[in-house]
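Incident review: delayed structure delivery

Summary: a single-chain prediction request sat in the queue longer than the usual turnaround. Root cause was a stuck worker, restarted by the on-call engineer. No data loss occurred. The affected request and its eventual output are reproduced below so the record is complete for anyone auditing the incident later.

Affected input:
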Amino acid sequence: MNDKTRLSLAREFGTPLYVFDADDFQKRAALCKDAFGEKVTLCYSMKANPFLLVCLPKEIEMLEVCSPGELTVCENAGADLTTIVFSGVNKTRDCVDRAMDDHVNVFTAESPLHIEHIEAAAAERNVTVPVLMRLTSDNQFGMDEGLIVELAKRREKWPHIEFVGLHYFSGTLKKRPTLIGRELDKMDALAQRIKDEAGLVLTR
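Output delivered after worker restart:
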């Protein structure tokens, strides 16, 4: 979108005005998909910009939702709720119940308490739900490696949960491939440790 188009839109609709280029969005998504390949699924985080939900490129196959408000946006927009990764800290049992009734794709677990909420809600509905265990990036969010391995060892305690993978968020605006590579290596190493010590093979 060039400056002339932006100026024309500002004159038509007034200011302040936010204009999003859906074509450019699609091109960027296609570049990401091409760069990472077919084995990687692109997931759009709702907190980035909920207004773009109505024009998500086909390359984006999943949605990350972190709050009841974001879940409401998805419901009202008619989004495919079965593509949602329901993440975020401090989830209450009510939040978990609502997301489970929406048949979201996968939950993340930030703590043992969060796991208990998910297990209780799933048991009530007699379903088994996939869960990603969140690894902390040395802050107050998520769990450390030792706790995650221990939970994987004791997974029979939660018969309505299937631990399928790991969730990790270390920050934004990271552009150095070497740094990103080190973090991916860290996740691979933890997945291998879980396999070796807990006999659990993660699939996501």
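Verification: Strands lie at 42-45, 60-65, 84-86, 106-109, 129-135, 161-168.
Action items: add queue-age alerting; document worker restart procedure.
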